[in-house]
Amino acid sequence: MRSYCYRVVIEGTISAMKNIFGVLVRSRKRHNQDVEVLSQMVLWNYINTELEGVLGQHSQWTGL
User: Fold this and answer.
1) 52 neighbors 62 (Cβ within 8 angstroms)
2) What do you get for the CA distance between the two ends of the chain, in Å?
3) What separation in angstroms does the CA of 27 have from each of 4, 6, 17, 44, 57?
4) Can you tell me the distance from the alpha carbon of 1 to that of 21, in angstroms, rounded to the nearest whole number?
5) What is the pLDDT of residue 63?
6) pLDDT at residue 30 above 90?
7) What is the mean pLDDT of the chain?
8) pTM, whole model, 2 decimals?
9) Residue 52 half-sphere exposure, CB side, CA atoms within 13 Å?
10) pLDDT value, residue 3
11) From CA 23, how far away is CA 57, in angstroms rounded?
């Protein structure tokens, strides 16, 4: 994939994460906000990895 295509992929992933987790960060302290967002990203990667195994690679549900 060429470097100019990454922005579309990243924006699509962020949009999908917002649809699942919501747009607000609920923590007040900066450190806890970082931990919250990182936890969401880890969960997002885990969900996509599991779906790839169940639905097959490059499925429409994995965002790839």
Assistant:
1) yes
2) 12
3) 34, 29, 17, 19, 35
4) 28
5) 52
6) yes
7) 83
8) 0.67
9) 11
10) 65
11) 28
Cβ atoms within 10 Å, residue 9: 12
Distance CA 1, CA 29 (A): 37
| Spans of all domains in the chain | 3-55
Which phi and psi (to 5°) does residue 27 adopt?
-75, 150
49: tokens are 């990895």
CA nearest 43: which of 20, 23, 25, 60?
20
Percent of the chain surpassing pLDDT 90 = 42
In this prediction, residue 1 carries a pLDDT of 54
Distance between CA atoms of 27 and 35, rounded to whole angstroms?
A: 9
Q: Answer whether 22's CB lies under 8 Å from 36's CB.
A: no
